[in-house]
Amino acid sequence: MEAYRDQYAKLFNNGRHVVVIGISVDPDTLLAAWAREIGTPIVFASDSAQVAGKLYGAVRGKLDNRSLFVIDPAGRIVKRMQPFNELAQTSYDALEAAVKMTLPTPAVEKR
User: Fold this and answer.
1) Which of 49, 50, 52, 90 places its Cα 20 to 30 Å from the Cα of 31?
2) Model confidence over 7-63: pLDDT tens digits?
3) pTM across the whole model
């Protein structure tokens, strides 16, 4: 998650027009302490019962699959990255491209 923190401005447009939520089966108190410790702007949610994970395909059997969902301003999932390989630069390139899909298109200047 440090890579997300370190690349937040570039990857997530500083949080404008995109939502980033890290969901884990870890207890909420552990997630909150960890987020404070690493100083991340990303929101974490605890899914210890794996309700959200099962709903969105982030859980396979009893294993928590590392998944990432890019959500646009209307609340639609525009990209599912399952599994997300946080050690591969290609994953971050695909993530950056997905976030760009959520950004409003610039107005065309009339002449």
Assistant:
1) 90
2) 777 777 777 777 777 777 888 898 888 888 888 777 778 888 888 878 877 776 655
3) 0.65
Which of 63, 65, 30 is closest to 46 using CA atoms?
30
Give the 3-state secondary structure of residue 91.
Answer: helix
Residue type, 14: N
Provide the pLDDT for residue 27: 85
* The amino acid at 3: A
Strands (E), the chain: 21-24, 43-46, 59-60, 63-64, 68-71, 77-81
Contact 33, 46 (CB under 8 A): no
**What is the three-class DSSP state of 29?**
helix
Domains of the chain: 2-102 (3.40.30.10)
Nearest C-alpha neighbor of 104 from the set 11, 9, 16? 16
